[in-house]
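Review form for a predicted model. The reviewer records the input and the model, then writes brief findings.
Reviewer: anonymous (R2)
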Amino acid sequence: MRVAISGDEGFIAHYLKEELGDECQILTPDILADEEMLPAILASCNAIVHLNGHSPDQSLERSDQEVLRLMRDEARVILKNVQSHQGIHLVLVGSLRVHPNPRREDEYYSSESPLSPRDITAEGQLWVEESALEHAMDTHPVSIIRTANVQGISPAENKGHGVVHHLCREAMFGFFNVPGTGEEVKDVIHVKDLASMIKSILDNPPPTRGAVAVGRGQGVRMSELAEIVSQATGASPQYNSQPGEEVWGIVDGWEMGQRIEHKPEVSIQDIIEEALSNQ
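Model under review:
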């Protein structure tokens, strides 16, 4: 199976390429802009994974109106070429920000969760998803993955990604800001587990279309996470009564397990230890 990856943001794409091995092709902006090279590459591919949760220009804020245009323009190139190459499985990887936060702790993110994009970038993500689904069929299946907060280290920058890394980075100054009151619950997933889950979906495409929310399927209360970071660093947590723009809530582990063979292996403690060692 040969897989192309578009929307490379220097983080998830690296780990996905590591997971897939030599049968993987990164579609750079130059390749996407080349009307001859792109179709030639896709002619030998069975699938495209498009990282759809961020702007092609990562210097822009998520709320910048320009993001919507850039996401649409990039996606149009991908969608047009997918439709012209029979047998390509399109996998769109975005965030849970297309959903509102659950109202209760026993309400989980799933394929049935309501759609209400939280910002311009989430609007762009949803536009791409809906545009792809319009053309989904047995010869062109579409999988949509919406992921919880992704944790890990970007090899290029040696920089930690995700809320746990952010808290540990701030703790080096003797205190750290915790969004919310501490009672909120958050689901997180390590980037290596996410890469393995994407590989599982590539190995088992849906008949025509499918959507799944991914995470660890287990939440951690922010006060508990803050206490672990505090004990490890000696820093004091400072709680902000405003929840900010964080994604709260837990992914439906049962639905995730029905769709994806890979089970998350990196624990929250492993994620915290990695974040602390990276400071």
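Findings: The mean pLDDT is 94.
Further findings: The domain at 3-148+189-214 is CATH 3.40.50.720 (Rossmann fold).
Recommendation: see findings above.
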